Structures are given as C-alpha cells and as structure tokens.
Amino acid sequence: MALRDVSVLFRTPWIIITRGLAFVIQLFVFAYLISGLILVPGLNFFQYYAVGSVVATIASISFVIGYDIFEEAEEGVLDYLLTLPISRRQFIIGRALGGALRAIIYIIPMFLVVAFIEGFAQPLSILSALLSLFLLAFGVTGMSITVAVSVKSANRFDVVLALLELAVSRGSTALYPIAFMPLYVSVFAPFSPVSFAADSARASLVGFSLDLPAIAGLVAFVVVFLGLGAAFYFRRLEGGIYS
Questions:
Q1: Is the pLDDT of residue 26 over 60?
Q2: How distant, in Å, are the alpha carbons of 22, 27, 33, 78, 194 from that of 30?
Q3: Is the dihedral of CA 226, 231, 232, 235 positive or negative?
Q4: Which position among 9, 47, 149, 158 has the lowest Cβ density within 10 Å, counted as fewest Cβ atoms?
Q5: Angle ∠(136,194,169) on CA atoms, nearest 5
Q6: What's the mean pLDDT in 204-232?
Q7: Distance CA 22, CA 168 (A)
Q8: Which residue has the higher pLDDT, 243 or 93?
Q9: Which one, of 72, 56, 224, lies nearest residue 142 by Cα?
Q10: How many CB atoms lie within 10 A of CB 8?
Q11: HEC readout, 116-156
C-alpha cells in the first residue's frame, strides 16, 4: 500500500513541477533578495529561509495524500482497495506511511541543494534533520486523511484543505522569525508542527544539537492525527456518518 502511494505521486508530474518551481523561486530569488535587506545580528537569513523552504515544501506535498483519498472514494477505487487481503490497521498505516515516504523522496533533491549551498556535511546532523522532516510528513499525512474522510463536499474539501495548509505552513517559523510576525500570528506559530520541524532541523544542521521539545511536539502531532485519521477512516469504511 505504501509503495502504491509512492508510485501515484510520480504519475502526477504537475505536482512535482509546480512545487519544484516554487522552491527554486523561493530559494534563489526571494530568499536571495530579502536576505540583502534584512540585517539581524546573529541571524543568517538566507540560511534560515533555505532550511525553512524545505520544511514548508514537505508539509505542502504531504497534504496531497488527502486529495488522492478523496478522489478514490468518489471514483470507487476505495471499494477495490478494501478487497485486498490486508487488515484495516495495515491499510491506514500503509496510506500514512506511503504519503510520508513519497514526501521525503520528493524533497531529498531540494534538501541536498540546501545542504550543498550551506555546507551542511555532518552525517548525524543530516539524519536528525531528515527524521524531523519525516515526522512532520507523517503527521501532516494523518491530518490530510482526517480531512479527506470527514468532508463530503468536493468544493468544501478543497477550501478546507487549502486553508489548513496555508495556516499550518505560513503560520509557522519555517520562513520568518517569530519576532517579525504580527501578534495574531506569533501567538500560534510556536505550536505549529511546521515550526517544530523547522526549529528541530535548524538545531541539527546549524547548531549540531537536538531540539528535544520540538521533536516531542512532532511525535505528539503524529500520534494525535494518525489516531484521528484512523478513527475517521474506519468509521467511513464501516459505513458510519462520514460515508
């Protein structure tokens, strides 16, 4: 099931192309120009933004699994998948794992570009940062599944998932330091899972340390939304109120 979800992503090249172009523009145009205007003692804004761009991109691509599941339910593919000889638990874990794996595979080239530009070469730091990205992708996949199986209207689903992606990604410290955010954003930004992943990745790559509170927040995020996604998915599969 996980391998199937990985292959599905690469059968939709427009997603890869659009997200890839957005990353290139963010890194080599926006970050380069803005870093020349922002002078904060002790902060390399280009480095800050480069790492955050990878984090924001993996969060964005992880939401795509929700669109896949929603389309499968509408087209009847879900009925076929349920005939496969696997348990319900394996089914939901496989969907979430597949979504997380394909997101990691997708952003590895971007991660390597940033690592090369910034000179990140410590293997343990890189592995620790990738672990944070994987946890974020796993949790966002669970969140996306939860939305996909709890919203029945196609138009409403598109709006809800787009707003949720915007809130989670932009209302975080991935791209901007919290000190420069409006008050109504800075209040919630520290609790965003994207903030946890960005802070943990920067701590690993730049500070060669582990941000344990951020990692704990990511683990909690994964547990909560994987559990919610499974519960809502099971209720829909069994013909509950979400079917």
A1: yes
A2: 10, 6, 5, 41, 20
A3: positive
A4: 158
A5: 120
A6: 86
A7: 17
A8: 93
A9: 224
A10: 16
A11: HHHCCCCHHHHHHHHHHHHHHHHHHHHHHHHHHHHCCCHHH
Q: What's the first-to-final CA gap in the chain, in angstroms?
A: 22
Q: Write out the two tokens for 119.
A: 């000179």
Q: Give phi and psi for 40, each to the nearest 5.
A: -115, 125
Residues contacting residue 218 through CB under 8 Å, at least 6 positions apart = 132, 135, 136, 139, 193, 196, 197, 200
**Two structure tokens written together for 31:** 């970050």
Q: Give the predicted TM-score (pTM) of the model.
A: 0.84
Place of tokens 């120009």: 33
Can you tell me the distance from the alpha carbon of 107 to that of 1, in angstroms, rounded to the nearest whole number?
21
What is the structure's pLDDT at 193?
93
Mean pLDDT across the stretch 88-96? 74
Give whole-number Cα distances, 219 to 102, 135, 146, 206, 236, in Å: 19, 7, 17, 22, 26
Which amino acid makes up residue 97? L
The ranges assigned to domains in the chain are 2-237
Mean per-residue pLDDT of the chain: 82
